[in-house]
Amino acid sequence: MTTGRSTSYADAGVSVAEGDRAVELMKQWVAKATRPEVVGGIGGFAGLFDASALKDYDRPLLASSADGVGTKVAIAQRMDRHDTIGFDLVGMLVDDLVVCGAEPLFLTDYIACGKVVPERIADIVKGIAMACAETGTALVGGETAEHPGLLGPDEYDVAGSTTGVVEADRLLGADRVRDGDVVIAMASSGLHSNGYSLVRRVFFDIAGWELDREVPEFGQTLGEELLTPTRLYTKPCLALADAVEVHAMSHITGGGLAANLARVVPASVSVRLDRSSWTPPAVFSVVGELGGIATEHLDEALNMGVGMVAVLPAEVSDEAISLLARHGVDAWQLGEVGAAGAFGAGGEVVFA
Known about the structure:
The protein has 352 residues and is of the alpha+beta class. The chain folds into two domains: 13-42 and 59-167, CATH 3.30.1330.10; 174-351, Phosphoribosyl-aminoimidazole Synthetase, Chain A, domain 2 (Alpha-Beta Complex). Helices cover 33% and strands 24% of the residues. The chain contains eleven helices and 14 strands. It has a six-stranded mixed sheet, sandwiched between helices. A four-stranded mixed sheet has the order 3-6-4-5, covered by helices on one side. A two-stranded antiparallel ribbon has the order 1-2. Strand 4, helix 4 and strand 5 form a beta-alpha-beta unit. The N and C termini lie far apart (74 Å). The model has no long low-confidence stretch (mean pLDDT 93). Its main location: cytoplasm.
């Protein structure tokens, strides 16, 4: 049974031609995010990476991570600025590998949108590629999917996956953490890419603020503050693990500081963090005040100014802080590790 009318894929809301043009626009940026091991370029059905270099490892362990950037994309869409969200994606992916000591090798991305706007897609990929270049990660491929009817014309979401490698005897983790270790904090660039459902509710629904509002505490507009890209810790953390003895690292993302650090704290020890050792950036206190949110609830959702931590022997603490400073990362001694029962139950992280 037919209607007598001709219908095309474009009539259904999917433009193959615009998708092809988006690929052409993004190629210049993808070319900047490569490594010698990459075979071929984008456009194939799969990205290729020469793994023969793994023969130099005694026992190579592959590490993988998959993630997205959450509702921070809503800020990028409202501001119509799309070239920074890629840094958030790469940060969420690659720095999850780094905490186990793994060097990132390659990354693939996935962009779902209601309508392919080639310039917008190219801007998103530009950010991803620039962040990949900064972290030494090859962008070997990805997918852009047009979902009319499921997403609005100006809506999109981004996600990805990444793979890295670490020598088995250099694997970092809870089994290395000891009584007498210290916790080194690395400053975040702001909210990073977590807790935006709470942050958006506070600023937009409760306070009624607009993105173009100048906020003296921030020294910039609300929108500029909320769109600040996630700091990338990849190269500083790898350099740290090469230079000094490091026992564990923790990427402070969803769940906050204590919960993420607890993931690398064994039952044989407890950890005490000194809240007086740092002052969180203004955005965290403003969110708390506007929303009437208690500190413990802020701790559960936001990084509170600490984007990454390292657990290492006390005798290398000063050297670690100096090395991170040379890599442009503000760092300080945040806490200490004691035996189970010293500061809390085994595996517990508490604030002093």
